[in-house]
Specification:
Length: 149
């Protein structure tokens, strides 16, 4: 993945490059080399990207188990959460309007130094599949879930 990012940056140096990275967790790691690969790719992300949105793998599992009440979450549920977060973050980039901005404005306003371009993401409401049609979420529930999950 980092070689592809590096080639894109070399071929299109004037474009802003944004990535979404899922960092591994020692509790849910499948292989021994995941932490090493994460550290090596993190160095490339510091050098080549303009904005990196970090998603914690252990937090994904905790959200699935505690908030969504899934005992053994599989990759479908985890990928659904990642897709929801990616969709929410890129909404202002995909749709035109007065309140929307482009990636360059986002990086100018949110990145104080070039090497400090890592963002943590949050998403609410987290509602299990199939329940969203029957559940209404109040503002207090939404804020509680945003800061507690």
């Amino acid at each position: 993945g980092t070689l592809l990012i590096q080639r894109i940056k070399e071929n299109y140096p004037d474009r802003m490059l944004s990535t979404f990275s899922v960092l591994p967790s020692p509790k849910v790691s499948d292989t021994v080399v995941e932490p090493y690969n994460a550290i090596l790719s993190l160095h490339q992300l510091v050098e080549t990207t303009d904005a990196t949105f970090i998603i914690d793998n252990e937090a994904l599992y905790n959200i699935c188990e505690n908030t969504l009440k899934l005992n053994n979450p599989d990759y479908d549920e985890l990928n659904r959460l990642v897709a929801l977060v990616m969709s929410g973050v890129t909404t202002c980039l995909r749709f035109p309007g007065q309140l929307n901005a482009d990636l360059r404005k986002l990086c100018v306003n949110m990145v104080p130094f070039h090497r400090l371009h890592f963002f943590l993401v949050g998403f609410a409401p987290l509602i299990p599949i199939g329940v969203d049609k029957y559940l209404s979420v109040s503002l207090i529930d939404l804020c509680t879930q945003l800061f507690d999950s």
